[in-house]
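lol ok so funny story. i was supposed to be doing the assay writeup but got distracted and ended up predicting the structure for this chain instead. priorities right. anyway since i did it might as well share w the group, maybe its usefull for someone
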Amino acid sequence: MKKFFVREGRLRSGWRIALYLIASLIVTIVGSLGIGLLVGLTIGAALANQGVPNAEISARIQTMFTHLFDFPLLALSFQGARVLLGLGLIWLFRRWIDKREFRALGFQLTNGWWKEFGAGFVFILAMWVMIFALTLLTGAAQISEVGPSLNFAAILGALAFGLGFNLLVGIIEEADARGYILQNLAEGIRFAPAVIISSAYFAFLHRLNPGAGWGSTIGIFFAGITLAMGYYLTQRLWFSIGMHAAWNFAEGPVFGFLVSGLDMGGLFKINVTGPEWLMGGAFGPEAGALAIGVEIAMIFILFTWARRKNGTLMNAGKIRLDTDVHR
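and the output, tada:
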């Protein structure tokens, strides 16, 4: 019976993942409620000291939470807290459940880590330049304004906020999906099927986003495979984090599209006229055939590049998993 749960002095990978998912759900719910309550009370107290009526205080707080991206400091605070809670949970699981080093998930700060991040960032930025050009050339979208109603300093500030926010998103979502989930799965069932399952998990997480549907689920699934190929190529997370951050940053704050159903503004004001099957509708281009087609091409490029470097994807022995035992 013990062998069903334990192997090499620790829980088997499937049980570790199950416990992690339960703990992650609890931390997400409790953390979101706790942070929201704390922020709401703090803002409410500040407004009350200014003599703002209680009814107006409630309305203002509700507006701030429903239009989060209009309040950059608030959005960064929430996302920063999400990163701290998420990485803290992963560290605890690595330390006490996995009995492995946290950095062995792919956070090694050895020579060249920043080059891997930069390469991933530039790779996706170039991809989005291509997608943007294709949408304009095909008439699927038109530019109505550039830098609407903003001066140069405001544009730089908006881009800096978009970059910082989406860098935080990239860090925590890659640590979760391509870090903890993918690598624990790969230990139990080998790397190739682990990529498929972890990408399905990644797609499922985005089902709660505005405008989500089957198109978005398929699109995010292929995005997950693309990001997993970044880990397969480098065997660290920096390339994938760079890709993830650049994807959201270019799609929203730069080119002005919806990002997984969320309006982050943009340097360009875009009118999307292409059909939903092509441009993704209320979820954004990630749910459309144009972006999915580009993702499939990227998967092929990264897979070919990584296979030449690391060998066949089916051979888990070629993939460096988390073998650094915690001392």
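The CA atoms of residues 35 and 81 lie 8 Å apart. Strands lie at 6-7, 10-11, 141-146, 268-272.
back to the writeup now i swear
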